[in-house]
């Protein structure tokens, strides 16, 4: 998968096929100076500016009718500092390239999400995360940021330098400036042992607190219309390395998770009544397995089946109740859901608009195969999530607005005040930001 977002005849589209926009012009700056000049030129022409990553967001967070900044020339590692244990990378670097380059240097991020096609700035700006008991989102691993602000000037920030910008800009939604470089904390590469095993949903819910407490990284997938889940526990290991064998890996990851699953989704889209049966088969197709490898090979997996996704963070203690309500809603509704529901956790962090800001969180993600009607399911799920003070992922489908966020985030006003200061003329505005942050 090269560029996951496509541009045909001047139209930009995202990966999930949910958003299209027609920018007035596109710029692919090869340096921070060129980017500054592009922002200043946009201001002279009265145009807004938006940087896009790989288009992995399902919301219109990157859509613009102004100047579209493509980051593909702003890539690569600027510096590895082994004393400070940090790496500084250009904003357009795909996570996949960062992970592979770090591994070659004997280094690794502490935690990551399950997809690595995104650019580092796109992933962090929308709050992309994996699952972790102590280790948080990718943005929480940031130690320094460089961004071009609305007047074209370059601003650097960290816990010591411009700390009020640093608090917000790590998950800045593209509202505060265009991120040009990110400094991440890294550590010596380590091994993780993954244990994947099926478990009844009732058992997972009954034992959730123990499963969470006993594992560094715990997550599970529940298959609607069934009482089945697939659980995954990742913990640090002394080794030896025991990767997934290529053939078994291909059968489970490519054939079952992507190939057969794709066909099943096509059948389900054509004949929705078959979906509960497909869910039962899918939920029993994956058997227990264990493997040990370097982190990015354990945390991430390919996603070739295109889907649409909504994900909410709820307080961790509200997880079991929220899931029970979700299950009751699906059973009651006559909806046909062919994609599993994914559940992960994160510790509280100190980033202004992080979905885990100030509270230990559990994430519940609902998916639908691309091209199937998802509104009824997502609307009903969202009603449950918001009743539990849920906070939606910034890059996934949701219908919330600034009024809701001002209640959901205690520090919301801190973010909007900073935006007023850094971007008073709303150079980085678009419809999505107008909705979620107010004008």
Structure, described:
With 439 residues, the protein is an alpha+beta fold. The chain has 14 helices and 21 strands. The strands form five sheets. The chain has an eight-stranded antiparallel beta sheet with strand order 17-14-16-15-19-20-18-21, with helices on both faces. It has a five-stranded antiparallel beta sheet with strand order 7-8-12-10-11. Helix 7 packs antiparallel against helix 8. The longest helix has 25 residues. The model has no long low-confidence stretch (mean pLDDT 91).
C-alpha-based Rg, rounded: 21 Å
Taken from the alpha-carbon principal axes, the silhouette is: globular
Strand content bin: 15-25%
Helix content: 25-40%
Mean of pLDDT: 91
Overall SS class = alpha+beta
**Number of distinct helices:** 14
Cross-sheet strand order for the largest sheet:
17-14-16-15-19-20-18-21
Query: What distance separates the N and C termini?
Result: 36 Å
Pick out the low-confidence regions.
Answer: none
Number of strand segments:
21
The profile of the biggest β sheet is: 8 strands, antiparallel
Short description:
By secondary structure, this protein is α+β, with helices and mostly antiparallel strands.
Features:
about 450 residues, eight-stranded antiparallel sheet
């Amino acid at each position: 998968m090269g560029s996951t977002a496509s541009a045909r005849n001047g139209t930009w589209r995202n990966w999930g096929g949910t958003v299209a926009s027609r920018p007035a012009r596109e710029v692919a700056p090869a340096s921070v100076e060129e980017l500054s000049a592009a922002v200043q030129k946009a201001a002279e022409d009265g145009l807004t500016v938006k940087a896009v990553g790989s288009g992995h967001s399902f919301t219109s967070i990157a859509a613009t009718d102004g100047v579209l900044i493509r980051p593909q020339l702003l890539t690569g590692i600027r510096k590895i500092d082994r004393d400070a244990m940090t790496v500084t990378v250009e904003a357009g670097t795909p996570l996949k390239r960062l992970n592979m380059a770090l591994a070659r240097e004997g280094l690794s991020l502490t935690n990551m999400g399950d997809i690595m096609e995104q650019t580092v700035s796109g992933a962090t700006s929308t709050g992309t995360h994996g699952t972790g008991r102590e280790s948080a989102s990718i943005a929480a691993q940031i130690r320094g940021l460089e961004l071009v602000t609305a007047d074209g000037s370059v601003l650097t920030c960290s816990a010591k330098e411009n700390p009020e910008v640093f608090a917000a800009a790590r998950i800045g939604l593209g509202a505060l400036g265009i991120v040009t470089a990110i400094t991440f904390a890294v550590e010596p590469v380590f091994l993780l042992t993954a244990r994947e095993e099926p478990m009844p949903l009732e058992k997972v819910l009954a034992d959730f607190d123990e499963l969470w407490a006993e594992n560094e990284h715990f997550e599970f997938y529940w298959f609607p219309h069934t009482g089945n889940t697939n659980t995954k526990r990742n913990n640090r290991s002394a080794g030896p390395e025991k990767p997934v064998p290529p053939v078994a890996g291909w059968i489970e990851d490519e054939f079952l998770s992507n190939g057969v699953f794709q066909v099943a989704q096509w059948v389900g889209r054509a004949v929705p009544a078959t979906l509960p049966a497909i869910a039962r088969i899918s939920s029993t197709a994956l058997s227990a397995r264990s493997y040990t490898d370097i982190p990015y090979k354990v945390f991430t997996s390919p996603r070739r089946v295109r889907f649409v996704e909504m994900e909410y963070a709820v307080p961790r203690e509200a997880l079991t109740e929220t899931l029970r309500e979700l299950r009751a809603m699906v059973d009651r509704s006559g909806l046909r859901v062919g994609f599993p529901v994914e559940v992960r956790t994160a510790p509280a962090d100190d980033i202004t608009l992080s979905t885990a800001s100030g509270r230990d969180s559990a994430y519940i993600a609902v998916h639908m195969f691309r091209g199937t009607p998802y509104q009824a399911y997502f609307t009903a799920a969202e009603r449950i999530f918001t009743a539990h003070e849920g906070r939606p992922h910034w890059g996934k489908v949701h219908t919330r607005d600034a009024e809701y966020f001002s209640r959901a985030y205690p520090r919301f006003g801190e973010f909007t005040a900073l935006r007023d200061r850094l971007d008073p003329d709303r150079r980085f505005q678009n419809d999505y930001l107008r909705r979620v942050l107010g004008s």
